[in-house]
Amino acid sequence: MAGMAMWTFVEWLHRGKPTTLGAASGAIAGLATITPAAGFVGPNAAILIGFLAGAGCYYGITLKGRFGYDDSLDVVGIHGLGGVMGTISLGIFASTAVNPGGADGLLAGNPGFLGTQLFGVLVVGVYAFTLSWVLLKLVDAVMGLRLTEESEVQGLDLGEHSETAYS
Question: Are 57 and 78 in contact (CB under 8 A)?
């Protein structure tokens, strides 16, 4: 709910009005962001992480317009950025008072755990980027990654399946 509330607020400030798609995206952003920290942070930290998710992921989806990458479902801006923010937030807000089997984060006196989380984000980011790049190059060599411009203009239903979903 905190992610949805913050996304809606930021969208309202940025675009002049909130949208139901934005509210749903904010809810998903909150869920994607709290996932790495779930079970290791208290309710107040979870609400704060949700607020960070709503604002951060909203601005994250605006990056595709600036950088021109294709992300029609906002996976990078919501799940990718949300996961990174949640993983880093774990290093900040984690507490053994919430889960004795976990670790204390920065605010509980353990700055080393934040460093561990930052290192993990870096390693996973490099691994995911490298493996994705290799797989995309392989797919591109075998069958190509893009459709023809004509198929994109006329629509994928007709261009790829020779049918239309709507008349």
Answer: yes
pTM of the model: 0.86
Residue 101's identity, in one-letter code, is: G
Contacts of 25 (CB under 8 A, 6+ apart): 7, 57, 58, 61, 74, 78
Which pLDDT tens digit goes with each residue over 45-94? 999 999 999 999 999 999 998 998 888 899 999 999 999 999 999 999 99
Is 156 contained in some domain?
no
Question: How far is it, in rounded angstroms, from Cα 46 to Cα 52?
Answer: 10
Q: What is the CA radius of gyration of the chain?
A: 20
State the residue range of the domain holding 55: 2-149
Asked if residue 16 belongs to a domain, the reply is yes
Q: Which domain CATH number covers 89? A: 1.10.3430.10
